[in-house]
Inverse folding.
């Protein structure tokens, strides 16, 4: 092959044909087309730098060629050393192949990101890429490829929201993240909304270092700054400080504490031998026809069990106002709001992908994977929730003045 700037196509053609008959692959680590791609890239980079230097000279800036640099490049056409000129000031930013980029095929990068989003480890991805493309990619390179989703993730986390959501659910997942020489626990809080069209939408994904009213206030303020004006009913799992934060930012929002979480928490205090009898007396409380009947049944529960189990019975009294919100609605709305199952179901899907992970290398690595999983799951959120027309009719009766002007937009 000719060493000067003029590529010897005839020589390349002869070598390529010879290689094909010898069984040499077209693509891959020692692919036949690698020299051709190398020539095209080096020529393109030379042209870009020449244009850049001319523009700087026209702008009165002093800059010139300053030697050459070489970097190892991987592509579907093969792996090779790419040589290019550099400028003295270091202001040149090539377009055809950015300075820190060593993978030059979007197809391969999309494949890597797709596999990462399915929860595969870097070792499994490297093995897969080697099997399919005959290309060896290091863990560092894989990380730099998946980092390309970070700008899209940040943009998604800051995107404008619809003005009104019918229901908003909140729940969290816990993960291990490496910090220094140790491992810490991080909580990823996801806020799942249901629009006035009945479609699910993950409104926000927040990493919590410390929970409480101040944290929730910042979360809700962020949602409001992104365009959320109102949420009709917020379904929560009893997180401390969240009802107060909602009242401060969205004072009209009705709060429904998850009944299923309340039941689970109650049973923690009940001896195994009493659980069946206790549940038999508890069911009439949350399965009552209306709030008044439910409260009467709570009094009966109190009379029978409070002396033996004061903590769980007292918890139902203390949280009754938010536990009983769902009683004012028809059966099909009750089923939707009395529990945070909607967001918990979403989390089960996320955990299917993330369950193989031990400890994440950083907070960013954690958010990056959860974001990619969210994108895959949300592709299926195209249809409204079951019986949405009936649900919307009920909501219009209850909140007509708050949603009338938003129905066409939402």
């Amino acid at each position: 092959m000719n060493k000067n700037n003029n590529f010897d196509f005839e020589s390349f053609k002869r070598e390529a044909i010879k290689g094909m008959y010898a069984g040499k692959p077209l693509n891959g680590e020692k692919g036949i087309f690698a020299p051709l791609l190398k020539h095209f890239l080096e020529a393109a980079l030379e042209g870009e730098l020449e244009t850049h230097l001319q523009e700087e000279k026209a702008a009165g800036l002093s800059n010139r060629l300053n030697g050459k640099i070489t970097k190892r490049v991987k592509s579907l056409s093969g792996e090779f050393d790419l040589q290019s000129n550099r400028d003295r000031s270091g202001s040149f930013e090539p377009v055809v192949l950015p300075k820190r980029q060593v993978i030059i095929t979007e197809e391969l990068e999309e494949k890597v990101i797709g596999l990462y989003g399915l929860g595969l480890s870097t070792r499994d991805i490297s093995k897969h890429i080697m099997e399919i493309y005959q290309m060896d990619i290091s863990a560092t390179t894989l990380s730099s490829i998946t980092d390309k989703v970070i700008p899209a993730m940040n943009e998604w986390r800051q995107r404008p929201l619809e003005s009104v959501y019918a229901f908003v659910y909140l729940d969290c997942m816990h993960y291990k993240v490496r910090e220094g020489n140790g491992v810490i626990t991080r909580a990823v809080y996801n806020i799942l909304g249901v629009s006035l069209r009945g479609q699910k939408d993950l409104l926000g994904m927040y990493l919590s270092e410390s929970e409480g009213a101040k944290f929730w206030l910042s979360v809700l303020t962020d949602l409001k700054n992104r365009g959320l004006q109102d949420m009709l009913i917020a379904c929560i799992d009893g997180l401390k400080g969240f009802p107060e934060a909602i009242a401060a930012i969205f004072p009209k929002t009705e709060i429904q504490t998850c009944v299923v979480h309340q039941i689970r928490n109650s049973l923690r205090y009940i001896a195994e031998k009493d659980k069946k009898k206790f549940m038999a007396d508890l069911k009439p409380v949350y399965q009552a026809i209306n709030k008044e009947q439910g409260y009467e049944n709570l009094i009966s529960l109190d009379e029978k069990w409070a002396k033996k189990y004061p903590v769980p019975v007292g918890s139902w009294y203390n949280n009754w106002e938010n536990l009983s919100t769902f009683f004012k609605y028809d059966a099909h709305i009750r089923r939707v709001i009395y529990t945070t199952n909607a967001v918990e179901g979403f989390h089960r899907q996320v955990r299917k992908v993330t369950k193989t992970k031990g400890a994440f290398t950083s907070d960013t690595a954690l958010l990056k994977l959860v974001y990619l999983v969210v994108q895959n799951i949300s592709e299926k959120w195209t249809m409204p929730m079951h019986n949405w027309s009936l649900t919307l009719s009920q909501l219009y009766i209850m909140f007509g003045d708050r949603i009338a002007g938003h129905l066409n937009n939402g």
About this structure: The mean pLDDT is 81. Residues 290 and 328 are 7 Å apart (CA to CA). The two ends are 63 Å apart (CA to CA).
